[in-house]
Amino acid sequence: MSYNFFVHSDLTFGKDAVQALPGIIEAEGLKRVMVVYDGGVKAAGIAQKVLQELNKVSGLVVTVFDGVEPNPSNELIEKIYGIAKAEEVQGFVAIGGGSSIDSAKAVNILMTNDGPIGQYGGIGMVKNPVLPLIAIPTTAGTSSEITNVTALTDTKAVCKYVVIDNKITPSHVICDPEFTRTMPKSVTAATGMDAITHAVESYISNMSNPLTKYNSIEGLKIFHKNLQRAVENGEDMEARENMMLGCIITGFGFSNANLGFVHGIAHTLSAHFGLPHGMANACVLPYVIAYNAPSCKKEMIELAKAIDLPLTGNEDEDILALSKELLNMTKALGIKSLSEQGVKESDFDMLAEDVLKEPVLNFNPRQGITKEDIISILMQAF
Predict the structure, then answer these.
(1) Are strands 91-96 and 61-65 parallel, antiparallel or unpaired?
(2) What share of the chain is helix, strand, coil (3-state, %, to 5)?
(3) Do 290 and 328 contact (CB within 8 A), yes or no?
(4) What is the DSSP letter of 73?
(5) Which H or E run includes 12?
(6) Where does 10-180 sit in CATH, by number?
(7) DSSP H or E run through 34
(8) Starting from the edge strand earliest in sequence, which strands make up the sheet with 91-96, in order?
(9) Tell me, what's the pLDDT at 95?
(10) pLDDT in tens, 116-161
(11) Quick one: angle between helices 261-273 and 348-355, nearest 10?
(12) With contact defined as beta carbons under 8 Å apart, do 303 and 200 qualify?
């Protein structure tokens, strides 16, 4: 049986990697670029460092959009696109986490394809090639910098949806671990658990293959060893660098294997309550993995062994070792429960109805998910 594994981006990794930016701009022949980021990146001084590098390119016209919002909406994308079109932008530089990079990916689609953006939800719906996009991540979790995915919010339908298309993968990636140094503990924890979710869900996905599994399990090992270190000491640059590397490796896996039930719930929580994506994933992850375990026993044990969890030899117990470890991690990292994040038990019925509509459930190893199954998981995470 044959399978496909797609890798696209040109990657520059390491300390002072941002110094490669002027050369990339010149090699692409860009004369007008838009830089996309949010207020946090600006406040941390990271945007200024990137803009200083862009100033080294003679004659380059730079348009800045610094109003990216969490869980970017269709309306935000259309707003940014209007500015980019008016400025005749030829390429993009996205600085930040998933929201900034996903926003730039979505706007890039509209630069060469007709709107509205919502019509591109699904897999392989983008018709025309897009403009050059240079992604500069400042978190280690989403992997948006090297994936073919952008996650957006439809505020009218009150749902989160994804555009998956190889054409939208950033053409260049600049990963400087120093840019993650200023991440607060809570963001480090949430984005790190997001990456662990990507690693585990892609490993057990019914679309996985040997190449995706290799990347997914290696990514899990890296984050399991380094996440707690980075949360406890943000100045631990060895841990920071390892996490950024793990994020790239994991991204190679899940962008080819897709995700599953955890993301189905997380998308719905973010759409209705604005929960940060990583936090939404983390609070339900242990319970979904326990739910999935009977349908992927071999993979559960392989993942547990990969991070050196103690096993008993009793399969029924060992397939739950990973879910128990993930629960311990979420508690140690201070991941908030659903109730602590403002979700009410009275919301569960509505949430479950919407989760059942999530296309990502098709890639989950355990099929036949019911409304009662979802409510049970929400109750455990409550």
Answers:
(1) unpaired
(2) 60, 10, 30
(3) no
(4) B
(5) strand 10-13
(6) 3.40.50.1970
(7) strand 32-36
(8) 10-13, 172-175, 133-137, 91-96, 32-36, 61-65
(9) 98
(10) 999 999 999 999 999 999 999 999 989 999 999 999 999 999 999 9
(11) 130
(12) yes
Residues facing residue 299 across a β-bridge: none
- Dihedral sign for Cα atoms in the order 328, 340, 363, 135: negative
Quote the crossing angle between the two packed helices 237-257 and 185-204, to the nearest 10°. Answer: 40
Which residue pairs, CB below 8 angstroms and at least 24 apart, start in 346-353? 347/272, 348/374, 348/375, 348/378, 348/379, 349/375, 350/272, 351/265, 351/268, 351/269, 351/272, 351/378, 352/378
Integer Cα distance of 291 and 308 in angstroms: 22
Distance of alpha carbon 273 from alpha carbon 339, whole angstroms: 12
Structure tokens at 344: 């009410």
Rounded Cα–Cα distance for residues 65 and 46 (Å): 14
DSSP string, 288-323: HHHHHGGG-HHHHHHHHHHTT----S-HHHHTTHHH
**Beta-sheet pairing, 159-164 with 149-154:** antiparallel
Q: How much is the pLDDT for 9?
A: 76
Backbone conformation region of residue 337, classed left if phi is above 0, alpha if psi is from -120 to 50, else beta: beta
Contact 95, 35 (CB under 8 A): yes
Report the distance separating Cα 103 and Cα 68, nearest Å.
7
Percent of the chain with pLDDT strictly greater than 70: 100
Q: Residues 176, 137: contact at Cβ < 8 Å?
A: no
Say whether pTM exceeds 0.90.
Answer: yes
Q: At what angle do helices 261-273 and 371-381 cross, to 10 degrees?
A: 70
Under 8 Å between Cβ of 259 and 216: no
Which tokens hold the place of 330? 């979420």
> Domain residue spans in the chain?
10-180, 185-381
Kindly provide the residue ranges of all beta strands, DSSP E only, lying in 49-198, ordered along the sequence.
61-65, 91-96, 122-123, 133-137, 149-154, 159-164, 172-175
The architecture CATH gives domain 185-381: Up-down Bundle (1.20)
DSSP string, 165-208: -GGGS-SEEEE-GGGGTT--HHHHHHHHHHHHHHHHHHHH-TT-
